Amino acid sequence: MFLHKNYINGEWIETEEKVEVVNPATLEVLGTVPDASEKEAKSAVDAAHQALAGWAGLSAYERSEYLANWSRLIDEEQEELAKIMTLEQGKPKKDAIGELVYGNAYMKWYAEEAKRVYGEIIPASTKDKRIFVKHEPVGVVAAITPWNFPAAMITRKFAPALAAGCTVVLKPSEETPFTALKLAELAEKVGIPKGVINIVTGDAKTIAGVWQKDARVRKITFTGSTPVGKILMKDAAETMKKISLELGGQAPLIVSQHADLAKAVDGALQAKFRNGGQACVAANRFLVHEDLFDEFVERITARTAELVCGNGLEEGVHVGPLINADAVEKVEKHVNDAVEKGAEVTTGGKRAHVGAGHFFEPTVIKGATDDMLCFQEETFGPVIPVSTFKTLDEAIQRANNTPYGLAAYVFTEKMNEAIYLMDRLQFGIVGINDGSTSAAQAPFGDIKRVVLAERVEKKELWNI
């Protein structure tokens, strides 16, 4: 069993209260982590604030070297990290290794970018003046990360913050904390100074509440649900913190009349089944031109039926478990709603009984319509609902008919068509003939303002 502690000011801190971490594939308890109180949350900020001047005062080359050395250890410990991630999150080990490669790309990229925080000299309005612009670190950054990518979401937040000279306090998901704490062990090994990174596990509302009220925390970065993001944004206003939010998605995948069908099917599988569909950029609504619709459904059904669902540590598994029972229930609700409204399940469609865990069969739904839950909400599971369209403008209108604007996917072999779609789709990331669009060197973000009805009490939102 994993028996872990929090990492605060370069020390491993124990607490009396514990949180159990469960393997979603077997429902076995993997171990425990501290259920930190307000005391530990404040101690983390104390340490980060105290370390800030020293860390920011290092040369860019010194910070770069720390990140590069941390990155090297992540590569060396890749097998161990992947095993931990699969045990606590469920994704197949091959996918876990892929996440580590992707996540470590941020460390490598920002190790170089640390040396390129350039200033500017701007022409002044009079000849006897000079305007110098010097970039300074924001200060202490509070990061709150989700369970679905327990390594990459951390490196994506740590790397740029540390490169810029900021110190960090992190609250990883209580469902997947062991990956974060292993990363902290590696940071300690490379000698990153005490207090520069601090990791606190436990109740998100308690920990975030302390950090939001503390004026020494100058920035909040959060990846998770939209309702929680709205709470964080409101609370951050009290101390005027900067804030970065990566929230929900409702990604359309458009297969045009001029698509290469083999390429589209490959891309669709990649965009949907990475991490079992549990990704904010996962394709959620599949819009296929009527001329290709039947053949696309036939091909995607055959390929999906071949996918093996099971424990991610076993060889040959393509799709692991969902994170918990609520996730399975939501996917089942979406599938049943589609069937009740006239859609046809061509493969899958039910819970997968391959063990004690939270499994759902990889599923294809033919004849999805815009009024179905799978087209209205983020399914966050292994379901491909396919609908047909006649014209590109129809596809664009339907794709944009959502409050979400994170990612979209387009498959076409005509350049002018690709540009037409790219210019009109209201999404921050548009992949053209590509089912995997995120990269360390490119921006990642939403372009819409999301307005959602409050459907649950605030105290429940942290579980979403």
Tally of DSSP β-strands: 19
Major β-sheet strand ordering: 15-16-17-14-13-18-19
Poorly predicted runs of 5 or more residues = 450-464
Mean pLDDT figure: 94
Q: How would you sum up the global shape?
A: globular
How is the main sheet built? 7 strands, mixed
Proportion in helices: 25-40%
* Distance separating the two termini: 27 Å
Radius of gyration from CA coordinates: 23 Å
Helix/strand-derived class? Answer: alpha/beta
Compute the number of helices: 15
The fraction of residues in strands falls at 15-25%
Question: What's the short story on this structure?
Answer:
With 464 residues, the protein is an alpha/beta fold. 40% of the residues lie in helices and 19% in strands. It is built from 15 helices and 19 strands.
Name its key features.
single chain, 464 residues, alpha/beta, 7-stranded mixed sheet, 15 helices, 40% helix, globular, disordered C terminus
Describe this structure in words.
By secondary structure, the chain is of the alpha/beta class. It is 40% helix and 19% strand. The strands form five sheets. It has a seven-stranded mixed beta sheet, sandwiched between helices. The chain has a five-stranded parallel beta sheet with strand order 10-9-8-11-12, sandwiched between helices. Strands 1-5-4 form a three-stranded mixed beta sheet, with no helix packed on it. Helix 5 (152-164) links the parallel strand 8 (140-144) and strand 9. The model is unreliable at 450-464 (pLDDT under 50).
